[in-house]
Amino acid sequence: MAGSLPPEASAADGRPWNYDLVLPPAIRFGAGRIEEIGAVVAGLGRRALVVGGKRGLFGGAVWPTIAASLGQAGVAWLRLAETAGEPTVDDVAAALAAAVACRQQGDVVVAVGGGSAIDLAKAVAGLAVIAPPAADTAALDQLVVDHLEGVGRGRVLAQAPLPLVAVPTTAGTGAEATRNAVIGCPRRRFKKSLRSPLLVPRSVIVDPDLTRSCDRLTTAAAGLDCITQLVESFICRFSAPVPRALALAALPGAVAALPRVMADPDDAAGRAALAHAARVSGIALTNSGLGMAHGVAAALGVECGVAHGVACGMLLPVALEVNRTAAGADLACLERACDPGARGDDAAAAVAFVDRITALVDSCGLPRRLSALGLAGDRIDWLAANSGGASMRGNPVALDAAALRPVLERIF
Questions:
Q1: What is the pLDDT of residues 262-286, one digit of tens each?
Q2: What per-residue confidence (pLDDT) applies to 19?
């Protein structure tokens, strides 16, 4: 019939493909491209409200380059906020107060840092345009919570945010390409997302040279977070064709590069491969979804304060084992991408891929038991009950709390 899809243009289960594709409008990738930040910001506004990490932006080696580029482009800048870890509701409220107090026409939020800094900047960009000018701390706190999934009043962002430029300095989270900001609240014991297509950065600069300042643990955790996102988005029940194709192309380079960069921090080609894979992983997860490793990692971060990448890296091997039968063909596809000479049927190739990822996690030296991350035995029930949300819904195998508990017990 005229206009109908050809037989190959359908999902694996026979359903016609039906998907959206969300990604940053402009991405500049390459070593040394941080020098272009002034021109990028000048194309969006007149002043940069800079959000960074406390451990290195303003006192680090890259800041003079950034400041000089902004100055040459005639862009003023203001040091708006810093974060020492994954942003909290308190962090967002404080940054919002600062942004509202100084806001003027032509402001552009500029995030330079890891996923935490970029997530904080997203929240500020999205909420500053609707925050009351004279709001007190309590009002700003409530404004943040009311826009988070599953904990507030379910309010959605409907107004265009301040323009956002994202510059990642780690190769892992892919936050520069996602439409959500993960915000925690130790007081209320949750970690939830502020989510909207409007939060996707207007422009992204990915300069692999900026990841050179990461220590070994950060490199390992970020790299495993990236790899987890590529794998889970590929096997996700909601996976879409474009992000699947991107993930399939990027994963082999990331798997090969991470051990090289761990052994030799000056491996420029390896850092470029990881930075590229991280950006792709953000696009992939935004347009498909994730799975068990991310579903549990979020709750584990709340309970134990463990870094997200560390949690994902520890959980990925067991998540793959849980999904090995249901997602065997997909895992086999990933194995053959990593090793084009891989032989055997899909089941054997899937086992080989699980073994490959397990060996990679072991080589990074991350903990392999939940107890090593500080989880108490009597908190397994809580962890199982709170490991849900959007990520878990995409897992190939349906896992409610009862089904997840014995899985967690095996790795306690």
A1: 999 999 999 999 999 999 999 999 9
A2: 84
What residue segments make up the domains of the chain, in order of their start?
26-211, 216-410
pLDDT in tens, 303-333: 999 999 999 999 999 999 999 999 999 999 9
Cα of 330 vs its chain's centroid, Å: 22
- Least Cα distance to 149 among 117, 116, 180 occurs for 180
Burial class (CB in 10 A: 0-12, 13-18, 19+), 360: buried
Q: Which of 124, 259, 249, 123 is nearest to 194 (CA)?
A: 123
Q: Are 320 and 331 in contact (CB under 8 A)?
A: yes
Q: Is the pTM of this model over 0.90?
A: yes
Q: Cβ atoms within 10 A of the Cβ of 47, count? A: 19
Beta strands in 207-307 (DSSP E): none
Could you give the 3-state DSSP secondary structure of residue 7? coil
Please state, in angstroms and rounded to a whole number, the distance separating the CA atoms of residues 223 and 346.
Answer: 26
Residue 43 has pLDDT above 90, yes or no: yes
> What fold is seen in the domain 216-410?
Dehydroquinate synthase-like, alpha domain (1.20.1090)
- For the domain 26-211, what is the CATH code? 3.40.50.1970
